[in-house]
């Protein structure tokens, strides 16, 4: 019998259609062909990208030359541009403004690696710190309201270059998906006086059936109303509304948890395309009690079709409980430590 589950954060209903389910081992990703050839993100090709905005470099090296570990550059084909004024205006019932914002690329390694899991934990930690640094810098611009960090891996997930990288798009408005989450969490807080996402963490820890990985500070679990097979969220056990308030000690564990979850997905599902997204609180808010930043990891194993687009429902063919149990049992010990030469 199919089951309807409601996501307490967004209010979205999900259909868990177990009759249509495959075994976890039956999910096969379409082969990802390596393009090869010239890569503008590799060390030595710094002049083939826009000038860097920020980089973590070895001492004595110059901007836009070799010697970097993490490099941030403007997107060559930006969705939004940083120059200009918003010029908000209306046309009858319609509202518009100039496409002002920022669109940046975080290049995660000078070497040509195609997966974040090819980096060691320290390199992933530096990547997360670069995320933080860019948010801290861009939130100073009063035109900007929200910073969305995300990663596309594989052509099915929207990636156009295989060299491991993330993106940051900063917008002058709050994205609708984040607004829905915040509204749901605020309503819960008004009624219960507690953070919904903190309660979610506590409930998942108490039941344990949807836990994928647990550390001292962070926990990874399959959400109760997962939209997609093997969808996994990472949250802090300690309430924090803004990702950019991340501390150094927290970053170390977060890097380990994030890399381990991705290793489990890659090992068991044959390197699926995926997206991950960091949902955090808009710049214009101070620390708030009702919303909690988190990372959503979405393997692209199924396709969104007419029913999903037309209804807003998602059909998930694997229960979150089965997905979490499967991922918990994936052994990644031999692959857990990778050090680049």
Automatic annotation (TrEMBL):
Its cofactor is Zn(2+). It comes from the Bacteria. Residues 4-175 form the Galactose-1-phosphate uridyl transferase N-terminal domain. Pfam families: GalP_UDP_tr_C, GalP_UDP_transf. Residues 186-305 form the Galactose-1-phosphate uridyl transferase C-terminal domain. Its EC number is 2.7.7.12. Signal peptide: none annotated. Keywords: Carbohydrate metabolism, Metal-binding, Nucleotidyltransferase, Transferase, Zinc. It is an enzyme of class 2 (transferase). NCBIfam families: galT_1. Belongs to the galactose-1-phosphate uridylyltransferase type 1 family. This is Galactose-1-phosphate uridylyltransferase. It comes from Candidatus Brocadia sinica JPN1.
């Amino acid at each position: 019998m199919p089951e309807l589950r409601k996501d307490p954060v967004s209010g979205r209903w999900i259909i868990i259609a177990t009759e249509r389910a495959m075994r976890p081992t039956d999910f096969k990703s379409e082969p990802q062909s390596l393009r090869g050839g010239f890569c503008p993100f590799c060390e030595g090709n710094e002049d083939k990208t826009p000038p860097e905005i920020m980089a973590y470099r070895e001492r004595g090296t110059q901007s836009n030359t070799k010697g970097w570990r993490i490099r941030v550059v403007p997107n060559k084909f930006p969705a939004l541009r940083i120059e200009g004024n918003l010029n908000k205006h209306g046309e009858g019932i319609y509202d518009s403004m100039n496409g002002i914002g920022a669109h940046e690329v975080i290049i995660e390694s000078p070497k040509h690696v195609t997966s974040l899991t090819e980096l060691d934990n320290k390199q992933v930690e530096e990547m997360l710190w670069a995320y933080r640094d860019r948010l801290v810098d861009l939130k100073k611009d009063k035109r900007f309201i929200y910073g969305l960090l995300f990663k596309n891996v594989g052509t099915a997930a929207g990636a156009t270059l295989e060299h491991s990288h993330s993106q940051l798009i900063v917008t002058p408005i709050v994205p609708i998906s984040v607004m829905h989450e915040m509204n749901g969490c605020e309503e819960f807080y008004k009624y219960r006086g507690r953070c919904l996402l903190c309660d979610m963490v506590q409930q998942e820890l108490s039941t344990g059936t949807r836990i994928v990985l647990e550390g001292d500070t962070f926990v990874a679990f399959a959400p109760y109303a997962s939209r997609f097979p093997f969808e996994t969220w990472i949250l802090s056990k300690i309430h924090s509304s803004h990702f950019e308030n991340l501390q150094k000690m927290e970053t170390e564990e977060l890097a380990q948890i994030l890399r381990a979850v991705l290793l489990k997905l890659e090992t068991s599902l044959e390197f699926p395309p995926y997206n991950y997204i960091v949902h955090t609180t808009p710049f214009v808010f101070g620390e708030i009690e009702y919303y909690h930043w988190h990372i959503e990891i979405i393997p692209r194993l199924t396709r969104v079709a007419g029913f999903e687009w037309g209804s807003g429902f998602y059909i998930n063919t694997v229960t979150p409980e089965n997905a979490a149990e499967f991922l918990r049992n994936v052994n990644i010990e031999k692959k857990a430590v990778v050090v680049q030469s």
